[in-house]
Structures are given as C-alpha cells and as structure tokens.
Amino acid sequence: MTDTITIGSRFNGPPGSGNGGYSGGLLAKEMQASGAVLVQLRAPPPLDTPLSVITSDDGLDAMLGETLIIKARPAVPLNAAPEAPAQSLAAKGPETFNSIEDHVFPACFVCGPLREPGDGLCLFTGRLEGYDGVGDLWTPDESFCDETGRVRAEFLWAALDCPGAFAIGNQENPMVLGQMTTQISERPKAGETLTVAGWLNFHDGRKHGAGTAIYRADGTCLAQSEQIWIELKPKTA
C-alpha cells in the first residue's frame, strides 16, 4: 500500500476535480481486494494534490489534511449484470449522445467530447433502440494498461462511472457521483473491443441509482458497478 495517491489533472471529471470512478478506483486498488469494493466520495477529489492513504476500520480513507475525500471498503458481491446489448447495437450509442454544446462536463476524462482517443476514454454512451439503457463500444488504449498488458483497475472504474449518469438522465439533471460499488472479474487487454452499458435502477428525489457493466463481444461480463448519483441543486440567479 502506498502512503499517498495523486489524481493527475488529466483525469478530471467536473472542472477542477477528479473523475469519481477513476479517483475511487485509484484508492480501491490499494486495498488489493479480490471481490467487490464500495467507494464513497465525500468531497470533490482535488487534482495534482497528494492525498494521504490511511487504514480505517476494514478499509482505506484518502485524506486531505483533516478532510475525508474518499472512503473505500469491502462490499458484498453484486448481483449478476443484465445481458449485454449486441455490439452492433452498442456501436450506435454515440449517435444519440450529447454534443459538445449540450454536454455538462465536455472535458471529462471518461465521457468528454473534447477529449481525443488515448487522452480520454471517449465513452459516448447514448440511448439504444430496443435496449433499456445506454451503451457504446470501447477499445482500451495501451497507455491504460500495466506491464502485463491488461487494463489497470482504475481505468475500468473510470469506464464504469459516467455511463450510469447518462442512463439516469445526466443532461436533464446534472449530477455527481456519490457512491460506487465495483466488482472486477477479469481485466481485459488493450485493443479488445468491449461493450460498455448502463441502466437506471431508481429515482429517489435528488438521489438516483444506476448500474453499469463492461462486456466482451461474446457477452461475458468483465466488470460491473452499482452507483448512487446526487443531482446538483439548480443555480440561483
């Protein structure tokens, strides 16, 4: 376990803070857990700022001074993800995705249309005809992999993040990630064409639930998550 984690400015979500999935995954990876991990984002993760990693209870906390930023704890196994949409269908997701002008966070590392492939994940999970959710295809770049050639866990967490918001309806009601439970069964290799999908679980006032998953072409689920998103309060004039 390292003493600190640092979220580089490249891995932003909303302007000035880290993408929630990437940031949580960076801490979760330090637990070296073989099963599901629950991460709670207690404050916007700062960029280019070392966060102290502290053992707490049965998990880890990422702290900025006395301020708790991220909590990571072991979680119960997730229920099986639903069947994947066909890759031919998922490939059409970007056709219904938001334009740069309509995107809430257009420079987001995961879903920002201002990012180039290899710099960002460029996951544009739009609505799919005949599928109750959103989807897109993703071919991981080599730069996202470790020395074994497999995608690093924090990038799988990132890929599982934003599709949940778009499954809920992020553009109609901008929101930020509050909690994410992720289970990684197998890390794919660079160059493999994967399906990333998201679906709505519930609405409860300003709190919303979603699920996401990453699948192989044959439908095998490699990683999945359950999420809680918090809708931002409307700005007052």
Secondary-structure map with pairings?
Blueprint: E1 4-5, H1 20-30, E2 37-41, E3 51-56, E4 59-64, E5 67-74, H2 87-90, E6 126-127, E7 134-138, H3 153-168, E8 175-184, E9 194-204, E10 207-215, E11 221-231
Antiparallel strand pairs: 1-3, 2-5, 2-8, 3-4, 4-5, 6-7, 7-9, 8-11, 9-10, 10-11
In short:
The chain is of the alpha+beta class. Helix content is 13%, strand content 32%.
Structure overview:
The protein has 237 residues and is α+β, with helices and mostly antiparallel strands. The chain has two domains: 4-74, Thiol Ester Dehydrase, Chain A (Roll), CATH 3.10.129.10; 87-231, Thiol Ester Dehydrase, Chain A (Roll), CATH 3.10.129.10. The chain is 13% helix and 32% strand. The chain has three helices and eleven strands. The chain has helices spanning 20-30, 87-90, 153-168; strands at 4-5, 37-41, 51-56, 59-64, 67-74, 126-127, 134-138, 175-184, 194-204, 207-215, 221-231. Strands 1-3-4-5-2-8-11-10-9-7-6 form an eleven-stranded antiparallel sheet. The chain is globular.
